[in-house]
Amino acid sequence: MARIELDHIRHSYSPNPRSDADYALKEVDHTFDDGTACALLGPSGCGKTTLLNIISGLLTPSEGRLRFNADDVTGLSTQERNIAQVFQFPVIYDTMTVYDNLAFPLRNRGVSPGEVDRKVRETLDMIDLSDWANRRARGLTADQKQKISLGRGLVRSDVNAILFDEPLTVIDPHMKWMLRSQLKQLHRRVGFTMVYVTHDQTEALTFADKVVVMFEGGIVQIGTPTELFERPSHTFVGYFIGSPGMNVLPVEIDGTSARIGGLDVRLSAPVPSRSGARMELGIRPEFVTLGRTGAPFEITKIEDVGRQKIVRGTLAGHRIAAIVAEDSEIPAEPRIEFDPRGINVYADSWRIETGAQR
Amino acid sequence: MLELKNVSLEVGADTWIDDVSLSLEKGTLNLLLGPTLSGKTSLMRLMAGLDRPTSGEIWFDGKDVTGVAVQKRNVAMVYQQFINYPAMTVYENIASPLRVARAPAQQIETEVRRAAELLKLTPYLDRTPLSLSGGQQQRTALARAIVKNASLVLLDEPLANLDYKLREELREELPKIFSETGAIFVYATTEPQEALLLSGHTATLSEGRVTQFGPTLDVFRNPDDLLTARTFSDPPLNTITLPKQGAKFSLGGGADLPVPSDLAGIADGEYTIGFQPHHLSLDAQTAGTQPIRARVLVTEITGSESFVHLDFAGSRWVMLTHGIKSFEPDETVNIHIDTRHLLVFDMQGQAVRPPVRRAA
Fold it and tell me: Which residues of B touch A188 (CB under 8 A)?
């Protein structure tokens, strides 16, 4: 497997890009260490597929170099890059058996029959299709076919990287759980370099060591799932990660105090003032405590989603969502408090580093 | 009211829909929840009159409509794929059912504007669908279904092709949109979370059968059988089969679980216990419970929570716990089952009795 180096890569679909807006992918300068499971996460049109296509060789970037372990592969075709790919829709040979579908990429590369058999059986076991090994692929359901596609991506151990493009979109929820955790287990065991494109936060966060959050052609944050949750570096990350996303409220900052309407919220560390900047306070629903103390809160809706409740309401005219536990009671005159550990302050949508101890 | 009376659909030697009886009231949202191939789409096609049942009857507002073609029924459908007229503006797309019905110009204007407002499409009325985002395209299809003023609106996984943030937004708005129209809405989904967010009523489907139908949270909390409980769990329901002796279910190795007090009277023997991932924890939720030891398979972290996949004596469980837990694979951990929320099933998979509800 390989380290993937994205050296000042930019891409524009127009031949003469003039401004930043002409770039479908704004500058990316980042290295993924060998063995990293990395997810590219963002809404449709954010540039994540463009970036994946550059890594896979479907697209040559307008600027910058791509290296696998210091080897420049920018000009190489997909085939020459020696990577495995799994797409959103199954790519398999309908007339072959399930077994032969998995064996095919190995036999093609002259792997010995004993080794082919060992690898294929191991992979079949992982995707839970051992009982179907001798069936033709044609009669299988969509998610069984997609499992074969996944298997074909995982069966080779000599590739530089495995690239996944929304691989679980067509899979039923229960099967998603199985496949996701098996993929994770496999990654821990063999340490493949994996790049996984998805718009689904749960998939990205649970799968990846490093999540790349993209928005409007640019990377807004690269971080561990915990970093993205606790310290979103941009309000978009706060909104996009988490369900419901982070509450974002316009504030006036005065040292260690943030004023929302007529209400003062204490901050755990002083925030430097930025004159002229639009200041906002971000707090995730998980850090909003609903109880009998704090600021008066007007509840507009309670969504009981089984394991927890999402309580929506307004504070000084601003919409806020809070998450409360399954068995907790909601007081008749509810008030809310913000857990200072969960507060981030933003100037013009970007997080201000306060150096506060958390 | 839409009534299905013992409706079955056989295709060749296969039974696609197996003896389904359902009554759906006006002004309600009804979810069909089940995995792919469980019969959701087949059932909707029968409701719409696109297919005729092999046996059974379909009644609408007290009239037998079995075999009445879809064109003669007042039905609207929205599919997973965004289906719009690409050459028409959004306005004309929404207006099309009214034009077909030869509605007066003033009525068309009023109703299109109202539907566009409801679905936040007002700024895009002059655009064509393909110049819009997926979410807006699907809103256009929804608006068209609504102006049709159909008495039955069928939505077949309408949000499946959207980014999850757009889904989140539409899920929040849909119940309000539905309640404003007064039609019977039927909504198919594979996702338990989506059913819970949309609320309303849910019918769980498995292999062409409706296993349970009732208010969504009721079905989720008090499943009649193991199949329903499994269909309605995401993450998957944790289960284990245990012998009951006296007041205890034995977990083996000296560990046991107390039999819920309201089930104290059930006979000794084997039972299947079910519990949700968030009812497994590292700390005791009720005093006096003993921890049990399980082996960690893999941990998934979402940022705020961890899904810990566990092996307990060959049973595969998931624990959903707050905070970041970085356990090593094969590490042994002490866990607690929150016995206040146990589901107990007999060996035929029938709920022995719904668990005690704490005051909601």
Answer: 298, 329
